[in-house]
Amino acid sequence: MSRARALPGLALALTGVLYSSWLIGPLLNPAFGLFDGYASELAARDQPYHLVFGLGDLVAGALASATGLALARRARGGLRRAWWALVAFGVATALDGTVSSMDCAPSVDVRCARLAEVGALSWRDQWHSVSSALAITAALASLLALLVSRRGRPASFRWGLAVAGVLLVGTAGTLVELVHPDAALGAWQRVQLLGLSGWLLYAGAIVVTQGDSASSAGARPSSAEPGRHEY
Fold this sequence. Notes:
This protein is an all-alpha fold. It has 9 helices and no strands. It has helices spanning 3-18, 25-28, 50-74, 77-96, 110-117, 123-149, 154-179, 185-209, 213-216. α3 packs antiparallel against α4. The two termini are 13 Å apart.
């Protein structure tokens, strides 16, 4: 395995792990159970250890963006679109943990919930929903492009479909809960987050194990420039 494939693949795997920092939420902030409220509330600026979760999003976003840029330079066709969407996901995720982090945690703070209802929170808090939506949209676009590029590889394609199923079910459940909130909101969003981490690990596996993506993107491997690696 060449370093050109190993490093981006490992970076994507690490991104998937960092993006799962919500798993340690109950340990650092007992006010939240593993499936209670939005995971983003752990990084709300009035919560204990919010810097830990904000830093997790920042580092995960930076890694995703840098890796996506490196891969997009070498890729063609559908894979190139997948890596540019990864860049967009990284930028939105980094914003989620920094510039557009939430002011407070409405699921555990009644006053915060009331302020959110009347739109009295800061512009940073209000932009959080925008950056989060952009991250999810970019991730779905990237996963779709990866699936299209894997159509000729049945095993890889099936794994991608499984990841897509988890992500789509979690996203659909989260959207329903936004319209009709109940106690299951946190659970559906955690399914969505597991799907996102699964997508990052799936993308990393593609980079590490497949060096001939030029053919997957509709180009002949022999047409690649000498010394140029395709993902």
